[in-house]
Q: What sequence folds into this?
């Protein structure tokens, strides 16, 4: 892959470009700047196509990272480059002078880093591809785990409903106890009320049995979930280790 794959990059705070690098001349710098002015401020990735080139942006926490690439380079290498410079820039300037730096004032310090990361990404496409696959697998595993967690939370809602119903039955049991207390002391309890108390007693007993069954089932389901999550995490660790160290030979 030729050196012209990535042709221009910059880091900006808002719409103020703090550092930039290119070895080429052309109107791509002004186009990239115009896109920056109209870019949404929300954390996200954006790509625009223009005249055989892609203008790739990564926006995070008020800072924008940009790289202009030839269209044939695809998305993988430009996005990998943006992730690398974001991590490097955040590590160097996070919470520091980047928050107040003026336009192009970080060129002297960070321009060479932009060049270094551009060169690395262009010269190591296979490694970039491998890391992208690992990230995709990690994202997929996270998606599965989040789906499973949502199911657990849904069960939690059902348990809360169960508690509410238990409280209602508890009040009915209190009525039953009151009725038997009155009967014990020879007071008269009307027949309809007695039927109501009797029905509530049967409901309470039936619900206790159902509650015990549900608790047992939930315990089994939670144990299954823990084993599944453990298995996923273990598989994820193995995938990452094997991707970085094939055959455990680092």
A:
């Amino acid at each position: 892959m030729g050196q012209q794959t990535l042709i221009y990059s910059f880091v900006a705070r808002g719409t103020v470009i703090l550092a930039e690098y290119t070895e080429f001349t052309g109107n791509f710098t002004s186009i990239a700047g115009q896109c920056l002015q109209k870019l949404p401020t929300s954390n996200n990735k954006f790509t625009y196509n223009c005249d055989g080139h892609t203008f790739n942006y990564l926006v995070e926490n008020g800072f924008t990272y940009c790289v202009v690439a030839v269209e044939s380079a695809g998305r993988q290498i430009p996005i990998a480059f943006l992730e690398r410079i974001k991590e490097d820039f955040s590590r160097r300037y996070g919470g520091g002078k980047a928050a107040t730096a003026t336009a192009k004032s970080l060129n002297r310090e960070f321009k060479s880093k932009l060049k270094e990361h551009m060169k690395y990404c262009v010269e190591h496409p296979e490694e970039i591809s491998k890391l992208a696959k690992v990230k995709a697998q990690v994202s997929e595993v996270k998606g599965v785990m989040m789906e499973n967690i949502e199911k657990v939370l849904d069960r939690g809602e059902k348990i809360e409903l169960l508690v509410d119903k238990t409280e209602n039955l508890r009040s009915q049991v209190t009525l039953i106890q009151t009725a038997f207390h009155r009967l014990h002391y020879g007071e008269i309890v009307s027949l309809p009320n007695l039927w109501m108390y009797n029905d509530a007693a049967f409901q309470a007993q039936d619900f206790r049995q159902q509650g015990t069954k549900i608790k047992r089932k939930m315990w089994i389901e939670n144990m299954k979930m823990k084993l599944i999550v453990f298995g996923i995490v273990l598989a994820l660790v193995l995938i990452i280790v094997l991707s970085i160290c094939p055959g455990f030979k680092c």
Confidence is low (pLDDT under 50) at residues 183-198.
